[in-house]
Design goal:
The chain has 491 residues and is α+β, with helices and mostly antiparallel strands. It has 17 helices and 15 strands. The strands form five sheets. Strands 2, 4, 9, 10, 11, 12 and 13 form a seven-stranded antiparallel beta sheet that branches. β9 and β10 form a beta hairpin. α5 packs parallel to α17 and α9 runs antiparallel to α10. The chain is globular.
């Protein structure tokens, strides 16, 4: 593998702190070159934030780096080792088709992982080819950038490069490499791997690394590992509440897909809910509905319990005391999640302050939405715009009663109608990445080579709270012909 001196030209400014962890956590591995790399989409704004030279990275030499054909100076490519409970079953895993190039240090002093996804086999590939298909990589690009615009912590996408090669799944598919940007790729599964395969000192090294990387303010805490656990609980409670508030369904909430940073990670079979139904599942592999929309909070708590188990040796030398500390901390999740979710739902309805009847008001609306299969996003959109008569709920006696109670609640506030509208517009997206729109963009891009549909979609998704006239068509519901939607992992 050729390493090139391009620091001054490209703007790469790598550190490799993860490689300073004990060697059980990774394997040094170069990307496998691809036949004919071609840049198909590039995130100029993100590149500039990272301190990268957009023009240089769009050059052929830059594309060679984004494809994994060349390694930039200062990078130390490695595959991370981790484990995970996949649909409840413990498995040893690792980066089977991804490599961490290193950590980009930005002009603002921030640190971000730069990862190539689809860069070839690694020691953790488990007989896989280590490659990725173009469709799921473009899909991750769309969804991750939409999540970012929605204000939800998420990994992001810098670029997608077509490889000029085929990958073989059920049928031959065009291959691609995605460049993913993350606060880090440390997962609950990374801690599970340390607890299963490593020593207590390996586990301690990982925990200290996570604290330095994400929560340095807790390094001097009396029990810094308990502080780490409680901080991850808080971050996950807030993250899952944000998912629920916009109708996002991750699809594969395995412990290897829960990031310690509190970011949404591994956007494979995820999708956004249309008609409100807590039982909604899109993922083709979630046949039991384990990760259905309504189950996401409890599944997050289950994952955090697995995280707690790994930390027990660090929490206290007395196993009983350690378990007591972990259980007390974990019990905070439900309260923390509920607080964030209720605050968010109040904002979606323009409610300032708190009243004892607010939860009942929210629950009744959701109950009606489920019964009448009202669209989740558009119900709140029409309430925001004051066009309740366009909702499928309008005309029912139940909704009329609810609407009167809502208006009475609003009238008891001192805040103006203008303030209510502002709050609702900043809390209710006018548009989301509708599943049929995403599929339309992917179909055009991959089958016809037309990226214009995808570029227009990304443009409107970049400002979901703007309520612009040009966004109206993207708020439309899918046609009946779209049918029951299913998503796939892409591996």
């Amino acid at each position: 593998m050729v390493q090139i001196n391009n620091t001054s030209l490209m703007g790469w400014n790598f550190d490799n702190s993860y490689a300073r962890l004990p060697k059980i956590f990774y394997s040094i591995q170069n990307p496998v070159p691809v036949a004919s790399p071609q840049l198909v989409i590039f995130n100029d704004a993100l590149a500039e934030t990272l301190g990268l030279n957009v023009q240089a990275l769009r050059s052929q030499e830059g594309v060679e780096i984004l494809a994994g054909n060349r390694v930039p100076e200062g990078a130390l490519p490695l595959a991370q080792a981790y484990a995970g409970h996949q649909f409840g079953h413990f498995t040893i895993l690792g980066d089977g088709r991804a490599l961490l190039l290193g950590e980009q240090l930005t002009p603002a002093g921030e640190r971000f992982d730069i990862q190539l996804k689809g860069s070839g086999p690694t020691p953790y590939s488990r007989r896989g080819d280590g490659r990725a298909a173009l469709v799921p990589m473009l899909r991750e690009y769309i969804i991750s950038e939409a999540m970012y615009a929605l204000g939800i912590p998420t990994t992001r996408s810098l670029a997608v490069v077509a490889t000029g090669e085929w990958v073989y799944r059920e049928t031959p598919l065009p291959g691609a490499v995605l460049t993913r940007v993350a606060a880090s790729h440390i997962r609950v599964g990374t801690f599970e791997y340390a607890a299963y395969r490593g020593s207590t000192e390996d586990l301690r090294a990982l925990a200290d690394f996570a604290l330095r990387r994400h929560y340095p303010e807790h390094l001097q805490a009396e029990n810094r590992y308990l502080a780490l656990f409680r901080e991850v609980i808080k971050q996950q409670a807030q993250l899952i509440a944000k998912w629920q508030l916009v109708g996002f369904i991750h699809g594969v909430m395995n412990t290897d897909n829960m990031a310690i940073s509190g970011e949404t990670i591994d956007l494979g079979p995820c999708a956004f809910m249309d008609a409100y139904d807590p039982a909604t599942v899109f993922s083709s592999i979630d046949v039991q509905g384990r990760y259905a929309y309504g189950n996401q909070p409890s599944m997050a708590e289950w994952n955090l319990a697995r995280f707690a188990e790994t930390l027990l040796p660090l929490l206290d030398q007395d196993e009983g005391k350690a378990l007591e500390l972990a259980e007390a901390a974990l019990s905070e999740f439900a309260t923390e999640y509920r607080r964030h979710w209720l605050d968010g739902m109040r904002s979606k309805l323009g409610l300032f302050g708190e009243e004892s009847q607010d939860e009942e008001l929210i629950s009744e609306l959701l109950r009606m939405m489920e019964i009448y299969r009202a669209d989740y996003t558009n119900t709140f959109r029409v309430l925001t715009l004051g066009r309740a008569d366009t909702s499928v709920l309008f005309g029912t006696s139940e909704f009329e009663t609810w609407y009167s109670l809502w208006q009475a609640r609003l009238s008891r506030q001192r805040e103006s109608r203008e303030a209510v509208e502002r709050l609702m517009k900043t809390s209710n997206p006018a548009i989301i990445p509708r599943n049929h729109r995403v599929e339309e963009a992917l179909e055009k891009a991959v089958n016809e080579g037309d990226y214009g549909v995808m570029e227009r979609l990304l443009k409107v998704l970049a400002h979901p709270y703007a309520y612009l006239p040009e966004q109206d068509e993207y708020a439309a519901l899918p046609p009946d012909s779209f049918g029951n939607y299913r998503t796939f992992c892409g591996t």
